Amino acid sequence: MNVSRTGKGALLSGVIKKSAAEKAGLLKGDIILEVNGQEVIDHKHLSDIIQNKAVGDKIKLEILRGSNQLELEAVLQQGRAVRQFHTFGKGDKKPSWMREWENKCDEAASKPAKCRTIKVDIVPWLGVEIENFEKTGGIIITKVFEETAAEDMGLKKGDIIETVNRVDLNNIDELIAFIQKQTINRKLKINISRQGKKEKVKGRLGQREKRSVVWEDCNKEELLKKAQNLAQQKQSEKQAALGKTRDLKLQSFDLFPNPTAGNFKLKFDSQRASPIEITIVDITGKTIYREFIQDFIGSYHEEIAIEDNPSGTYILQITQDGQVFNQKIILNRNF
């Protein structure tokens, strides 16, 4: 069965003939809400649930068909598992969420990709949590952090800050602005009220690390290289544990067309009777497509659609018995 994302559950955009889904009575347009009483969050979650089951397992499905909720029972069988894409036949009307998603993808593809980096700055810090003290004005300390300038000065929880270096401070915004303008290690003289008594403390201003997120234009070649290295590293770790070689040998492999506008045909032969996993990841390592086949042997010849994703470079990975086959895919939606 082919499934798509929806607000809750997984929308069936198609049912494969002679499949467990068809035998269970599932129809195109059904929304799977629960599997064995477990709520289905989205299409990926459904795929993960099914992959944890074995051939021959019986599962109870709660579905939404139109405005009616139904319960069905399915027996899992060998064959293709859930696919994470949506396909439409000629004349099919795309739902509003799909049109909106495609518009966002087109918009994103026309802009430079952005990457997140963490910027670390050293800023002045007193080392207290504070609140406005409404009764008499000023700022009340609600917490003093350990090993900070505030602790060294002798400031305590409940102290009311009135002035710093002879500057009247009436609220927390004024104190924060004052501290931000100072240099690290500057001498401070603070007038406080402690249990109704006026006191003075002094010391030097401390510091802390301030982390912030900065979005910058990505170097797509570097991102692709990192994604490939990460995929190879993870696969090497898995293979090292299994004592297997890295490369998976496939017979009659073909992927056409490549570059692709979104739909391509994948063909290969394998003579091993063991589970096989087909995944496609983007340059950040995010999985956009996954298919799992239990005890696969023989020929694979299917059409795969990834047209709902932005233009760019993707990596196809076929894994069997701890061995992996990699192939670069170029998606160009402007064809």
Protein described:
This protein is α+β, with helices and mostly antiparallel strands. Helix content is about 20%, strand content about 45%. Strands 1, 2, 3, 4, 5, 6 and 7 form a 7-stranded mixed beta sheet that branches. Strands 9, 10, 11, 12, 13 and 14 form a 6-stranded antiparallel beta sheet that branches. Strand 11 and strand 12 (about 165-170) form a beta hairpin. The protein is elongated and about 85 Å long.
Topology overview:
Layout: E1 2-5, E2 10-14, H1 20-24, E3 31-35, E4 38-39, H2 43-51, E5 58-65, E6 68-75, E7 83-84, H3 96-109, E8 114-125, E9 128-132, E10 139-144, H4 149-153, E11 160-164, E12 167-168, H5 172-181, E13 187-194, E14 197-204, E15 206-217, H6 220-242, E16 251-256, E17 263-281, E18 287-305, E19 312-320, E20 323-331
Parallel strand pairs: 1-7
Antiparallel strand pairs: 1-2, 2-3, 3-4, 3-5, 5-6, 8-15, 9-10, 10-11, 11-12, 11-13, 13-14, 16-17, 17-18, 17-19, 19-20
In short:
This protein is α+β, with helices and mostly antiparallel strands and 335 residues long. The chain has 6 helices and 20 strands.
